[in-house]
Amino acid sequence: IPLIDTIPENRIHSVIIQTNERYNYLFRDKILKVFYIQNSVSFDSKPLKQKKLSNTLIFNGTASSPFGVFYFLDFLNAYSNQFTGVIKGAVLSDTRKEINSKYDSLIKKGKLIMDDAYIESKYLTNYVSAYEIGICFYDIESLTKNRFNYLSAPSVTMFTYFSLGVPFVGSYFPVLLFI
Questions:
Q1: How far is CA 82 from CA 60, 85, 99, in A?
Q2: Whether 38 contacts 179, CB under 8 Å
Q3: Which of 31, 51, 90, 119 has its CA 20 to 30 A from that of 63?
Q4: What is the pLDDT of residues 36-64, one digit of tens each?
């Protein structure tokens, strides 16, 4: 449901939103004062003194099929002689079972580490900055609910990598051309 259908128009003074596509979807042809701001992370301006973990990839975020964790694991499985992978974030129980079953050899060899311990967002940037390459995939076809949301506003994970200068491999999003 477009947002404009749920809120009286006279109650909206301005809109903060990520892209023009999202604005048009949510507010249709209404002309409102708009501020475009991308998803972002908290950032501490102190220099990071983190040693890079050589040949170590990080999948930061919820580990589930719609968020492309199996793309990451298939890559890691094919190149485990070159890379180690870390999943940092929540691992859904069904996903964990499938990972433990299908990628058991990676876990046993220490080539896959699942770290689902909670970390406060203010410490996350320092944690992520230690990794050589970040991963941010989506399986767009399996995203059945809120698909528009994923296509029109790239994830905070992507912006975490941007803010830290951590190179990453991710899904193609036409909306990134806006940035």
A1: 20, 10, 20
A2: yes
A3: 51
A4: 876 665 555 555 556 678 889 999 988 98
| φ, ψ (nearest 5 deg) of residue 77 | -65, -40
Backbone φ, ψ for residue 44 (5° rounding): -95, 125
| pLDDT tens, position by position, 140-162 | 676 656 666 666 666 778 777 87
Sole residue written with tokens 């390459």: 133
Report the candidate in 94, 84, 91, 89 with the shortest Cα–Cα distance to residue 155: 89
Residue type at 51? K
Q: What is the pLDDT of residue 70?
A: 94
CA-to-CA separations, 86 to 30, 52, 122, 135, 160, in angstroms, rounded: 45, 14, 20, 10, 16
Tokens of 101: 């079953």
Per DSSP bridges, beta strands 53-60 and 168-170 are unpaired
Report the alpha-carbon distance of residue 114 to residue 93 in Å, rounded. 12
